[in-house]
Amino acid sequence: MPKSFPSKSSKTNQVRINAGVWRSRLLKFPDVEGLRPTPERVRITVFNWLEQDLTGKTCLDLFAGTGAFGFEALSRNAKHVTMVENARAAYQSLTQNQSLLKAENCQILNQDAMQFLAHNTQKFDVIFCDPPYKKALLDKILPILNQHLTENGVVYAEAEYEIKSDENWEVIKQNKAGNVYFHLLKCA
After folding, report:
1. Of 140, 128, 142, 138, which Cα lies nearest the Cα of 160?
2. Taking each helix axis from N to C terminus, what angle separates 68-75 and 88-101, rounded to the nearest 10 degrees?
3. Which of the 8 DSSP states describes residue 97?
4. Would 2 be classed as within a structural domain?
5. Is residue 133 part of a domain?
6. What φ, ψ does residue 178 adopt, rounded to 5°?
7. pLDDT of 127-145, one tens digit each?
8. CA 24/CA 16 separation, integer angstroms
């Protein structure tokens, strides 16, 4: 009897939470154009940079996509996480994963990131910013993110290019994995 292999369309997209109360939990997400989950080893590095435990921190997961950063932050005791995702299918997946995890300290918004930032007055300790590539969104968002940070807040920024320190941002840490550049920034 011939072996049957699952078709590519039946492949399940999933990411793993690496640590905390939901360690090893798998989160499913849909196929959405432009959605590219941050590789697991990159997320591990980022949370090492953030010193693992986010107890008492408020976080913003802008362009939340799979929600891997936001749910990981909650798993590591973040006080509250706001996730912003414009794609309807990804947003619905985020709300399903929120329900599955019983993530109560989480607000998920189906909204454009720029629109959210234009109306948001809350300050965050950590902002995860991984916008779709090749749309120059990071160039538009970085100049206004400092208005949304607490005094000692940091921004995780992922891009297809390297970010350099300038008059607005100091690059605290940076690395590259494949074609992905990832950075931890603080206000200069």
Report:
1. 138
2. 20
3. H
4. no
5. yes
6. 65, -125
7. 999 998 888 899 999 999 9
8. 6
> Where do the DSSP E strands lie in 68-131?
80-85, 106-110, 124-129
Within a domain: 132: yes
Report the CATH number at residue 162. 3.40.50.150
Q: Which helix (H) or strand (E) holds 75?
A: helix 68-75
Of 105, 106, 64, 69, the C-alpha closest to 85 is: 64
pLDDT classification of 95: cutoffs 50, 70, 90: very high
Which distant-in-sequence residues (6+ apart) come within 8 Å of 185 by Cβ?
154, 155, 156, 157, 163, 169, 170, 171, 172
The closest alpha carbon to 21, from 81, 93, 78, 83, belongs to 78
Quote the domain boundaries for residue 104: 9-187
Number of domains in the chain: 1
pLDDT in tens, 46-65: 999 998 789 999 999 999 98
